Amino acid sequence: MRDQPDARPADVVAVEALSPSIVRVVVEVSGFESLGVSDEGCVLTFPADGSSAAESDVERGHWYTVRRVEGDRVTFDVIVHEGGAASSWARRGKPGDQLSLTYQNSWMVRPEDAGWQVLLVDTTGLPAAARIVEEAPAGMRTIVVAEVPSAADEQALPGAEVTWVHNPEVVHGGSELERIAREVELPDGPGYVYVAGEAAATRAVRKYLRHELTLPAQSYGVIGYWRRDAAAWAERLARSSVDIGELWEQAEAEASNEEEAMDLYEERLGRAGLL
Asked: Fewer CB within 10 Å, N side or C side of the chain?
């Protein structure tokens, strides 16, 4: 990561398994200030076995959605899977442990005139969807379609119309988000579609929303939270001569808006074998 901000200690005060795939972690971060956006996230670094987060290489940190903020107490719902320091720690973590927190950011930009919102997510997008539901403006219709490994990962989302799609292969990247998106009937009038999940799946949904439904750019937001081929992709990137930051800056400079820039960026990533 470039321009790494100073890491802030995040003292663990509670750890609770919510489901087979989700562990809730509550930390205390002195002077934490929420961005006030429902899908805000932070980079958390978890200690490897036998070390503290402060001793860990902060480059191993990953983005996690801020599920809830109560004063200095910040709640994260961590998705557990095979491998990785976060999953390893989450299965054995306890109050008194210390994590490390750095970046804060948010991505959701829902138009002021939106009368409805549709949230299409896999398990990794579920914490963001849950907070978006909780913080939805009064009277806003909210539709959630969530792809999870099994019924055991379902959770209550009061105030939303929820459909659960059970897909054991989602943990391996076999996401059905594109099919799900094509089957959802969007309400009439101005609204917002929020999509979060595996990178290839969300990329396909973005193309559907932009190029087939031709939705206005401001009426949807698509975030690729993870890659099913992350290790192989990192190796391809390391072998290539491509600076993906520079590639994005070039696309932004040439495009008239962010969605056009994303089209150019993905086209060039594809040509470089990095999609």
From this structure: N
Looking at residue 4, its pLDDT comes to 55
Task: Answer yes or no: do 218 and 235 share one domain.
Answer: no
Residues paired with 121 in a beta bridge: 146, 196
For residue 76, the Cα-to-chain-centroid distance in whole angstroms is: 12
What's the token pair of residue 219?
């009426």
* Residue 177 shares a structural domain with residue 151: yes
Considering the domain architecture, whether residues 224 and 123 belong to the same structural domain is answered as yes
Q: Which two tokens stand for residue 24?
A: 């809730």
DSSP label at 56? S
Q: Which residues constitute the domain of residue 260?
A: 230-275
pLDDT along the chain (275 residues), means of 10: 70 95 96 93 81 48 93 94 80 92 93 97 96 96 97 96 96 92 97 96 97 96 91 90 94 94 94 91
**Distance between start and end Cα atoms, the chain:** 20
β-pair partners for 74: 27, 69
pLDDT at 60: 61
Output the pTM of the full model.
0.91
Give the count of beta carbons closer than 10 Å to the beta carbon of residue 249: 13
Residues 19 and 239: their CA atoms lie apart, in Å, by 39
Contacts of residue 176, defined as CB under 8 A and 6 or more positions apart, other chains included, come to 147, 165, 167, 170, 201
Residue 91 pLDDT: 85
User: Would you state the pLDDT for residue 147?
Assistant: 97
Quickly list H helices, the chain: 85-92, 126-134, 177-183, 199-207, 230-239, 244-254, 258-271
- At position 134, the amino acid (one-letter code) is E
In this structure, the answer to whether residues 37 and 124 fall within a common structural domain is no
